[in-house]
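Phosphoribosylaminoimidazole-succinocarboxamide synthase
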Amino acid sequence: MKALKETHFNFPNQSNYYKGKVRDVYTIADKFMVMVVSDRISAFDVVLPEAIPFKGQVLNQIAAKFLSATQDIVPNWVLDVPDPMVTIGRICEPFKVEMVIRGYLAGHAWREYSAGKRSVCGVTLPNGLKENDKLPQPIITPTTKASVGHDEDISKEDILAKGIVSLLDYEKLEEYTFALYQRGTEIAAKSGLILVDTKYEFGKADGVIYLIDEIHTPDSSRYFYAEGYQDRQNNDEPQKQLSKEFVRKWLIENGFQGKDGQEIPEMTPEIVRSISERYIELYEKIVGENFVKADADAISSRIESNVLTAIERL
């Protein structure tokens, strides 16, 4: 199986290029961005050595679906989706925080809670919760947006005190975050899934707040299967989930959590294939249709051709 690990395009009027953990972003004439979602995969803020076939297509197509399904709540950055792995959108000045919202005690929040902490990002949690329990109500646990290294937990109070986001803007970001999570929860429920937690990124252009980046994908969200959820909780059994958490757990079991001196375990072809299959499974489960694999024989040339055609239209 072929995968797109990196790109090196030179589009007409290209004014900037940025390589993120999994996305290659090209700026055209300082007017709009071409975001290529590669097949790279990251965990614990580290890009893993092997790319995952079709992962980029899965992320881009799920994000396109959900951005379209939530544009009545908040405007988003998308102008065109010319290729299964590409989104073109307006340039926004990103807010330097990611709005993480949690409806259940899982992942990072559970790791903090199980270590004895009862306050996450300034939000107090009750005693007596188990891993994957539903929280009394969804909570927002923001993180700082790091260009390099690890994102860090931060409280609303610190965000405002440090002037990272103004009070007026932050209250709007909170309002959008709760509304988006509610919509995502409703859509997931129709597919027999629980949207456990997710994150949203926002930016501003001409004074307007836009939803940017991807939403409700397995890289930005965690999903459980709704069927049997409560039985598994009652029996202290692990939840069946569709998210990148299974990759993190595999890394933890093999001695890697992104800490200094730790080595990334070998990603065998079997591991790579299994991760790819899990991403496709989530796509089919949440989108409700079969995943159609894009032509992988000449990924770069296909993307370049589709982007050039789109640029001419824009």
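thats it. The longest helix spans residues 167-190. The longest strand covers residues 193-205. bye
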